[in-house]
Every structure is written in C-alpha cells, then in structure tokens.
Amino acid sequence: MGEVIYSAKPLWAVLVSMVAAFLILLTGDKARNLREGWTILAALIKFGLVFSLIEPVLAGKTIEYTLINLLPGVALQFRVDAFGLLFGVVAATLWIPTSFYSIGYVRTLNEHAQSRYFFSFAMCLSAAIGVAFAGNLLTLLIFYEILTIATWPLVIHHEDESAINGGRKYLVYTLTAGCILLLAIGITYSLAGTLDFVGGGFLAGHGSPGLLIILLIMFIAGFGVKAGIMPFHEWLPSAMVAPTPVSALLHAVAVVKAGVFGCVRVILFVFGPQLLHELGVWTILAGVVAFTVVAAGLLALGQDHLKRRLAFSTINNLALIILGVSLLSKNSMTGGILHLANHAFMKITLFFCAGAIYVKTHKDHVSQLDGLGRQMPFTFAAFAIASMGLCGLPPVNGFISKWFLCLGAVETHQLVFLFVILTSAMLDVAFFFPIIYNGFFKQPLPDVAGKIDEAPLIMVIPLCATALFSIIFGIFPNAFLNFFNIVRLAVTNVLGG
Amino acid sequence: MIDQLPALIIVAPMLGAFLTPIIGWRYQHLCYPWTLLVLTIPLYSAVGALFKVIRSGPFGYNLGGWAPPWGIEYRIDYLSAIMLVLIATIGFLAAVNARPAGKTEFKGKEAQLYTLFLLQITGLLGIVITGDLFNIFVFLEITSLSGYGLIAHGEEGAPMATFNYIIIGTIGASFYLLGVGYLYMATGSLNIADLATILPALYHSKMILVGFAFFTTGVAIKMGLFPLHIWMPDAYTTAPNSVSTLIAPLMTKVAAYLMIRILFTLFAPDFAISVVPVATILGWLAVIAIIVGGVKALAQTDIKRMVAYIMVAEVGYIVMGISVMNRAGLTGAILHIINDACMIFCLFLTIGAISHRGHGREINHFQNLSKKMPLTMAAFVIAALSMCGIPPACGFFSKWYLIMGMITAGQWIFAATLLGSSLINAVLFFRIIEKAYLAPPESQGHNHTDHEAEEIERNDAPLSMMIPIIMSALAILLLGLFSGKIIDAVIQHAVPAIF
C-alpha cells in the first residue's frame, strides 16, 4: 500500500461523538434544544472529519494513528483504508438525517428518557466509526464490544416486557459472539503474531488447514451474529421493539453493518481470497449465506408487522453483501461492498417511512396501510423509491450493486448463486410491492384523512433526502462522496494490481 | 531519606496503629484524619519504591543493618513493588471511605476501627515487602487477627462467620508455619532468595515435598481457592461495609501474590510441573472454582453475597493463569490481581454507599436506583462491565492475557471456562443494571417525561464515599487503557525469565 499519513483525524472522528455524548448527559432534559444542538453539532463535525479523509485515501494513501500499545505488537490503532473509509462515510453521513429525524420522532411521541436515548446514540456512532477505522482485529473487537453495550439501552428503550426480553436476547447473542471472537482473535494472534489487517490476508502459511477452517467458522459465527447470518439472526427481529430511528440507523446501518464489516474484514483482510481458495471453504461459506438470503426473503413474506418485515429484508440484504464478498471474484466483491453503502441509504429510508407512519397514525402493521398513500404521499413515494432500489430496479442505486453481484456470480461459473441473487430480487418485489399497492391504490380505510396530512417536516425532509440520494447515487455512483471509486480502490487493495 | 523508604512503608502504619488508641482515648473524632495522615506515608513510599524499581531494578533493604540470610531482608522487586502500590492505594481510599459507615457500624469504638484498620494494612504491606519466610508468617497473622476483629463487628451473623473464618484461617496459617518449619529443618535458612539457591539440590527430599504441600494448602485457604473457600462468602458478606472494602479486595490478592512467590521465586517454576503435578491440580481446581463461584453467585439475591461468590470465581481466574505456567498466563494472572482488586473494591464501595443511604442489598431493592444515586450506579456499571470483560475496562485485558495463556498451553477447556464465566457475569450484572435503570413496572409506557423523574429524590453517596468510588471507577478504565504500559514497565519483568 502507498504512502502512510500520520494524523489524529480518525481519533477525533471517534471522540467527537463520545464527547458529545457526555455533554448530552450533562445538559440533560432541562435544556432540550441545547442537548439536541450537541447531537447535530457532533454529527456535522464528524461528517466533516470523515469527509476530509476521502481525498487522501483516494490518492492511495492510508491514514494511521496509534493511540497506545495494548500488547506487544498490537496497538490501539486506527488505520483508514478504502474499505474502512466506506463504512465510516456511510455511518457518518447517515447520522445527520437520523439526528434530525430522531428529534422529530422523540418529541412528537413525547418519549421518556430522551437524554439516555441521545447519549446512547452518540456512543453508538462513536463505536461504529471506531470499528470502521480500526487498524487491527483487537481494536476492532474493542469498539465492536462498546457498540454492543451502547446499543442495549436503545433496544430496551420502551422498558416494557417485550423490550426487556428483546434486550436480553440481544445481549445473549452478541455477548456470546464477543466471547467467541475473543477466542478466535487469541488463536489468530498465537498463530500469526500479528493482528494488523492486510489487504489479501495475513494468515496464509500459518497453522494447519483444519485449524484455519475452525478459526474461520468462529470468526464468521462471531461477526455473523450482528450481521444476522442464519441461524444467528433471531435477535434482530426481536430488537425491532426499539424506537424507529434506532432501527433505522443501528439495525439497518451501524450495528448490523459492523457485523458485516467484520465478516468482510476477516474474509478479505485476515484470511484473504488466496487462502480461502486453497482451503476450498468459500463455496460452503457462500452456500450458508445464500441460504440466509433466500430464507430471510421467504420469512419476510409472512410478516405483517412492518418493521419486522423490514428486519427480515435487512437480514436478506446483509447476507447478500457477504455472499458477494465470499464469491471472491472482482465484480462480486465490488457489488457486495458497494451494496454495503447502497443498502444503507435505501433501508434507512424505509425505516424512516415506517417511523413517520407510526408517528402520524400509530399504525405499524402492513394490513393497516390501505390507502394511506393518499394521506402521506411523500412518505409513500420515498418508500416506493427505496423498495424499488432493493428490488434492483434502475435508476435507484440498488440496481448497480445488484448488477455487479450478478456479474460476479457469472464470473465464478456458479450459476446457482446467480439464481439466488435473482430469486432474492423477486422476493423483494413480492414483499415490498403489496405495501406500495395497498398504500396508493387500495380503497382507503375509514380512518385515513382525505387530504395530505404528513408527519412533522423534521421527519419528512430527512426521509425524502435519503430517498433522493438513493436515486442520485443510482445515476451518479460517484456523486459527492465518491462511493464507487472508494469501492474500486478497496477491491484493488485486496486483489492487488 | 530515600534509602529508608522500605522501612517507612511498614513502620509508619504500625506505629500509627499503636498511637491511634491513645489519640482516640480523648479525641475520638481525630482518629479519622490521623489514619489518613498516617496512610499517606506508605502511599508515598510505595510509589517511590515502584519508580525506583522501574528506574534501577529490584533492590533490598536490610532491616537493622543485618545482612541476609541472618537478618530480615525487605526485598522489593517488580512484583512486590506494584503490589505495594496497589495495597497502599486501595488502603488509603478505603480509609477515606470508612468514616460515614464506620460511624454507625463502630459506634463509639472508632478508635478500635482505625487501629485494626491500620494493622490490617501493615500486615498486607508486610507480606508483600518482606523477603523472609517467617516474617511473612508474622505479617500474615497480623493481617488475619486484625481481620477477625474487624469482621466480627459486622451485621447479624458476623460473629458466627468470623468464628468459622478464625478456625479455617488458623488452620491455614498453621499449615503455612509448618511449611516454613520443614524448609528450615532441611536448609537452616528462612531467606527466600537464599532458599531459592539451596532448594534445587533437595527437590526430591520428602521433607521439602511435605513442606511444599503445607505451603500451597495454607496459602490456598487464605486466598479462598475452591474447595477451601467456604469461610469466604459469609465473612465478606457479613463484614461491616467500612471494612469489607478493605479486606475483600486485598486479602485474596495478597494470598495470590504469596502463591506466585512460592511457586516461582521460592521454588523453581519447573518444580511445580515435573516434581509434583501441582500445576495441573491447581488448574482443574480453578476450573471448578470458576464454575461453582459463578453458579452460586447466580443463586444469590443479596448483592454483597453475590459479589463474594464472584470472588471465588475470580480467585479461580488468577490460579488458572498461574497454573498454565507460561508467560501469557502468568502475565494475565498478575494483571488480574491488580484489575480484580480494583473491580472488587469498586463493587464493595458502591454496595457500601447504597447500604449507607438506606437501600437494601436485595436485587429488588435496586429498582430505579440510578435516579436516586446516579454517580454511584454509573461506577457500579463500569465495574460490572469490567467484570464481564467489556473493553476498554481493565477486565477485558486480563481476560485477553489469560485466554492467550490457555491457548498457548493448549488448554481449551480452561479457555472455554473463562469465556463461559464472563457470560455468567454478564447475566449476573445485567439483571441488576436492568433493575437499576428501568422504571418500575407500574409507571411504564410513554407519556412520562420530566415531571416524574423529579419526584424521585436524588440522594447520592456522601463526598467521602464518592471520592473513592469515582477514583476506583476511573482506575478501572485507566488500568484498561494503560495495561500495555503497565505490562511493559513492570509485569513483564515480574514473570520469570525462563518463560
């Protein structure tokens, strides 16, 4: 890899929201506008810091910052490469609309414990950026665990029985995963003596094939819990009891993507395509996630609760990302990694819509939405755009990533995976389009207002914005944030040349 | 002045202890500031000693100018230096914390409290600083006897628990003394450094083997290693809150220190592997200790008793790290001695503060406590997360080293036990955190924001309790972040070079 720049910017990007979190706690419920001001300010500063890293990274540089030595040879270290930057940019960018949306959401519903809510949110973002910029497995694990704990207060936010049970389930799954990861990382360290991510992997030539395969299983199980790979997905639909902005940013972007991010890091930067080909396990891995893709799609069909349906769609898409990466061909990797960014924009739009519908009408089941599109046209239009994107229809950005995924599946000569990707797109149509149809074309239910009556503007604008960006990124994949170039660079880092 | 540092560490609190009853005779209220004043001296000297060791390596101090092996030598190496700092710091903070609870628990007998308090700290420091086997026994007895006196002042059931502790503890001390006797008969020496050079020739002598057996069993009783832990939960649960903060974190840790000394300094490390299979036995005892401690803790509803059972498991962690006999494991064990002392200290402090404010120790009494005592509960959460091994708290790093030790040794069952235990800890603590941070069931729902939170009166711990609580919580985080530094500067030198 090219030139290395030593800069504390990654550290500041992590710290800014952590500092904001404590300011939020100190400000408290007394001065709500000031408290929300901290959130917005931190979101903007964080975005600025992360944005400023795009240019040097695209120029082939890596930004490095070592905080402190944790163990001999392993430091608490941030190293920003193209792949980490992609995740960082996605999380930092989407925090801005989510902050505005959150304010509208909690104030309209007059939620309790708002300070705790914004505090945990800021901590989560801090940890997510830490995960993105981590330079080695141990640093990644540290932020990953912080993310686990910081999300918990958000899952149990409503403090009723289902929330507490959802929270317990969430903790059992994720903390167990954390233990497995710790053991896996320990074994990796004892084998290779290093934990630094290297494009193309660093484990080749260490340990016996049997041990490496067990290690891979442990890693994928550990990170796969947050990524919702079946059979470890159960917590995610249960965690949908959280307030909708939480589901939007964390259970569609930051937390679950941290799991996917970890899986991809392990597949491409710890093991590497070469080693996985030699071990011959990539087809099994791809098979497991392909199963998740189809099964989650089928399960989504049966959900009447809107957020649960979206949760299964999330599981489906997360598995699709990992499928793309584990096919190990250039185009499939491009498609998978790009989908990590694209899916974030589309899915956050969908959750924003679900939240807006709930705030306005207190409806959260698909069967209650008949004719609601006439009352909330903007919300339903955004919903339609985002779900079209997830089905892979142009001109929404989902088309591009799915196109590359299909190309990649063809490249590997494993047509079954192409079939899986296309089936998944069909299933997307099958579970999203009825919602759009019901909303716009069915006879309205008696309680639907005859005129346009949307949720507060502070919620509608963010969801329109993310929908709009989904289209813009579909037509110009390199607009503003250079997503496509970053993805290309990340793939080049892994495959070389 | 600097040359007399080692002597000051012991002499100051000991003389201070003798003067306390005299001061308390007329001016009971002066005992507290006096104790704090006295304890600054070992704190200052211990930190000075640690820096001296880091700068120029281990050094000795001949008490009364008598050269070893005839005189008593104070030997300060990397391990004892960091232990001294640990004991002096926690001792000082525990003393700061002692007053509010001590006023009610030792009503009218505060002079006795502080006298025994200082003696306890003297004993703990003495065990660590001295390089003489018999001298260790003397300090061990000072510690134990003052400990019995302090614990017996506790709540209902304390006298019975103390009686149990006296019986078992005395057996432990006698075993240790018998061990010293056997070694003295065989070698004619009591100086550890001297013995370490004489002993290898005698490793297969029956007398040495019997002595070794008495040593390890005696120390295992003192540290509460399964199955010799039965005195521990009762004693630490019923002990007065002003005292359990001092004894609980330190007594087991000092005994663990003693075990490391015996296995790695007094005897050569391979003695415990090749001559007698004590390492293997200790390892499996540790596994059982961790499981039993965890399961018993799950069954408790009294938080103080729960923490006491967690300590049984934590002792298992340390012994497990020792038992694998490799660098990573022993580093983890030593790191965990330090980290666990801070975590247990923080937990007992917060529990003490909660009791002091009149809240019960049952889990159900923790309902909504975060609104009544927000800072105390925040510290409790930090300690709890550290217990579960969540980074960046220090518990994560000792767990990491212990796991590395198990992996290096190929002990997969040990590794699985460790990980399972941190999950049990997560269950244990999250059920409390859930209670403390969630509103009571009757007022759940959405539409209660500010006005209801104000109804609950905020009444956090008094300042003299709050300072140690905050310090220990910060220490948990800082020890985590700087664990690399601590290992580089101190612990890696404390591990025998042959590993």
What does this structure look like?
The complex is a heterodimer of chains A (497) and B (499). Chain A contains 18 helices and three strands. Chain A is mostly helical and 497 residues long. The radius of gyration of chain A is 21 Å and the shape is globular. The mean pLDDT of chain A is 87. Chain B has two domains: 1-271, no CATH class; 277-440 and 455-499, no CATH class. Chain B starts with a helix and ends in a 5-residue tail after the last helix. Mean pLDDT of chain B is 88; it is low at 443-454. Chain B has a two-stranded antiparallel sheet. Chain B has helices at residues 5-26, 31-56, 78-105, 110-129, 133-151, 158-187, 192-198, 206-223, 231-238, 241-266, 271-275, 278-298, 303-323, 327-356, 369-372, 374-387, 394-409, 412-437, 450-455, 463-481, 483-494, and strands spanning 59-62, 73-76. The chains are: A mainly alpha (497), B mainly alpha (499). The A-B interface holds A 29, 68-72, 75-76, 109-112, 114, 138, 141-142, 145-146, 148-149, 153, 156, 158-160, 164, 167-168, 171, 175-176, 178-180, 182-183, 186-187, 189-190 and B 385, 388-392, 396-397, 399-400, 403-404, 407-408, 415, 419-420, 422-423, 426, 430, 434, 437-439, 444-450, 453, 481-485, 487-488.
